[in-house]
Amino acid sequence: MVETPACQQLSFSTRRYFARGSASTSRSRSDSAIPRNSCPPVDQSVAISERRIGRLRHRSLWALTAWIGWLAIGTLAAHADWPQILGPNRDGSLPPGQTIPVPDHPAPGIDWSHDVGAGYAGPSVTGSQVLIAHRRGESEMLEALDVETGQPRWRARWQASYAGGIDPDTGPRCTPVVAGDRAIVYGAAGDLVCIQLADGEVLWHRRLRQEYRADDGYFGAGSTPLVLGDIAIVNIGGKDAGIAAIDLADGHTRWTATTYDASYASPVAVPSAGVPLALVVTRLRTVLLECQTGQVLDEFAFGSRGPTVNAATPIPIGDQRYLLTASYGIGTTIVRVQGRALHVELERSQLLASQYNTPVFAAGRVLGVHGREDVGLAALRAVDPANQRVVWEEPDFGTAHLLTDGQTVLGITIGGAIWWIDPSSDRFTALAQSQLPPGRYRALPAWSDGRLLVRATRSPTSATVHCIRLARDTSAVGTP
């Protein structure tokens, strides 16, 4: 671990209202906090271990407990601060009751830093643990860190098999998902692994993309599974299964649906008075399906053939409407869920065209990146979805991940700039600005009780996780 003085501070400037115009069961073992040099063996067989048989006896009780644990569709256990990609609701919004403090001098401080391996997987947080997926050598792993100190608690390892694509980084892309007393990790080669949170024991391991004959695509597997109750819904993209529901108790397949290629956007839960529903963006189609059976209820075209990707996750914008966005001429689609059907209200609009960053909805507006990282043109836009107009645009903002508490938007650019932005203003209004340590901040951030957790990529095989304290009481900034 990289030891960082608790009082170390970021480069910072305050800009108050500065406005600018315009399953096989794996026998992998978990590591202790002391790093090990060798990767424990992985059982490639499909035999069920004696320990797993014991667990199956309690499967019904576990499944019932899992469903009770999630009282609302898409909302995980309350003790998990940031239990999945884009937070508790998969839309970049902070947990209820938490706010983004706008700092004055002194600058936000780095509580701790910890070195990890390859990958673009963002952190998740549950209780006192930070979970980070990464790759070292021939092993993919999930590592649990203490949220207060950054000290490792355990590591779970399994054999890595992703050989790489356009990007030389071969580590996992998907954020770990907390599911009760366990975590789900989806690796770059499509390995779905279930890990016990208490000690890092690997409970089961499925090579889904291999089993269902899915191609690696441009960047490997990058759609974070959706956990609902006792299943994980996975956007696999296989010739034998485009989407599948995997049982969390033992890893068996509950159902499969479609043969569509996968996207890099993550599925989202759709509130429903009846059977739980999910909206899944695939390579060229977006589908509404029933979570218990996998029945496809409705679908529409979204995407484009050729060297393109769908990577931004759909976000709710009120009244059962969802906004989807992609670059490559695809633009914005707004769709309303009406019972068990989809009604497209707007399609292929150039209101917002994001290559991979998911926008946020705050103060009645959608703030998001308009443009592409690979061509070097990316602006930040505020869009009024009700009137279908661009309120303002900040040119050359760069690609950025966004978080919001509904009143303030926090933007972290790929170059490490942090911006505090007023979403209600009629022009770009920066409340404050700061700079993170050197690195590429392509991984999604996480939030935990005033802490911002970010992953800075330093090379195709190495990165550092930083815990930044954004304290409301600035006299305490930089202290643990």
What labels would you give this structure?
five-stranded antiparallel sheet, mainly beta, 480 residues
Mean pLDDT across every amino acid position: 84
Mind telling me the C-alpha Rg?
21 Å
Question: Mind telling me the CATH superfamily name?
Answer: YVTN repeat-like/Quinoprotein amine dehydrogenase
Oligomer: single chain
**Overall tally of domains:** 1
Strand order of the largest sheet: 1-31-30-29-28
- Strand segment count: 34
Short précis:
The protein is mainly beta. The protein has a single domain (11-476), classed as Methylamine Dehydrogenase, Chain H, CATH 2.130.10.
Structure, explained:
The protein has a single domain, classed as YVTN repeat-like/Quinoprotein amine dehydrogenase (Methylamine Dehydrogenase, Chain H), CATH 2.130.10.10. It is 5% helix and 42% strand. It has three helices and 34 strands. The strands form eight sheets. The chain has a five-stranded antiparallel beta sheet with strand order 1-31-30-29-28, with no helix packed on it. The model is unreliable at 1-7, 12-22, 24-29, 32-80 and 472-480 (pLDDT under 50).
